[in-house]
Design goal:
Elements lengths: L1 H13 L7 E4 L8 H13 L8 E5 L17 H8 L2 E2 L4 E8 L2 E8 L9 E2 L3 E2 L5 E2 L5 E4 L2 E4 L2 H16 L3 H14 L4 E2 L3 E7 L6 E6 L2 E11 L2 E5 L4 E4 L22 E5 L3 E6 L4 E10 L9 E8 L2
Parallel strand pairs: 1-2, 11-13
Antiparallel strand pairs: 2-5, 3-6, 4-5, 7-8, 9-10, 12-20, 13-14, 14-15, 15-17, 16-18, 18-19, 19-20
């Protein structure tokens, strides 16, 4: 602990810029920011750039490196340790606070010994403002930005892990990659209007629809029979209206709520996706079968139509 706090003191004296190993927060994680804590920690744990290096989240410093100190007492370490149980594999992380020139500074220390990637959310969790993280979600830090992890990120991490454990496994990786390429068509429908049924445990729940500038990547997760979550990455935004059950949403786009990248969708509810090119996709959940609630497999059935 003394070694960690000495490093924190070095950071406070030097104030290096944020990086793949360092993040500044002006405040501690409040109850409405708890899901951000889980995302931030997972993103650091999965980082390629700082793999096997120690990482630090410093609380009480603004993004422009002003040491403001914490106005309130930092959340107890026991609370943070309980939140870390939401991450699988469960990482080894330390939290604490120190005094620096009369100002309270908090820290979250993420040891480089945490090497069991890919780390991901192991159960659905909601903060007090209804922000969600969902089971199976994973994030990765690239530079100073956190991203939702992609299949390519996962493949790269697993490749590295195989290389570390088994030496040169290029022939095995090539075989796996070739197999994945052959199976991609199972999770792709290039039509601009269609009905889809697929096993969402496969391909990490991803299914791509449309073609060209009208391409949309949907990420599904089954919660219960006839209940699912839809997630989006950096290229699409989810537009949602409570209990909206029309097959094709016809309302103006600005009447939808785009505040979350993850939405709970029930049978017959519809939503829209808007991609980075401004193209709009209407989607309706037909049904969801949940293996954990009596069905044979996790299966999603949905209809979609490109709207512009």
């Amino acid at each position: 602990m003394i070694e960690i706090e000495n490093k924190i003191m070095d950071i406070l004296r030097e104030l290096p810029s944020e990086s793949n190993r360092l993040d500044y927060k002006a405040k501690d994680y409040s109850n409405i920011k708890i899901t951000d804590f889980i995302k931030d920690v997972i993103a650091f744990l999965n980082s390629d750039e700082s793999y096997e290096e120690n990482k630090y989240i410093i609380l009480g410093i603004t993004n422009d490196k002003y040491i403001c100190g914490l106005k309130n007492t930092m959340r107890d370490d026991n609370e943070y340790q309980n939140l870390l149980n939401k991450i699988n594999p469960r990482p080894d992380i330390s939290t604490g606070s120190i005094d620096y020139n009369g100002r309270a500074i908090g820290y979250i220390f993420i040891s480089g010994k945490n090497k069991d990637r890919v780390y991901e959310v192991n159960e659905d969790y909601k903060s007090t403002n209804n922000n969600f993280v969902c089971k199976g979600q994973a994030f990765i830090r690239k530079g100073t930005v956190n991203y939702q992890i992609t299949n390519k990120d996962r493949e790269r991490i697993y490749h590295k892990k195989l290389m570390e454990r088994n030496g040169n496994t290029n022939h095995l990786i090539q075989a796996i990659t070739a197999k994945n390429e052959l199976e991609k068509d199972k999770y792709l429908n290039k039509s601009e209007e269609s009905t889809v049924e697929f096993k969402c445990k496969n391909n990490n729940g991803f299914f791509t629809v449309g073609n060209g500038e009208r391409t949309f990547k949907l990420n599904w997760y089954v919660v219960n029979n006839d209940v699912a979550h839809i997630r989006t990455g950096n290229n699409e935004k989810i537009g949602y209206k409570d209990n909206y059950i029309q097959w094709i949403p016809s309302d103006k786009i600005d009447s939808y709520d785009f505040s979350s990248f993850d939405r709970r969708i029930e049978k017959d509810e519809s939503f829209i996706l808007v991609n980075k090119l401004g193209k709009v996709l209407g989607v309706r959940l037909i049904s969801a079968d949940s293996k954990s609630h009596g069905s044979i497999q996790d299966i999603i059935r949905f209809q979609y139509k490109c709207l512009n």
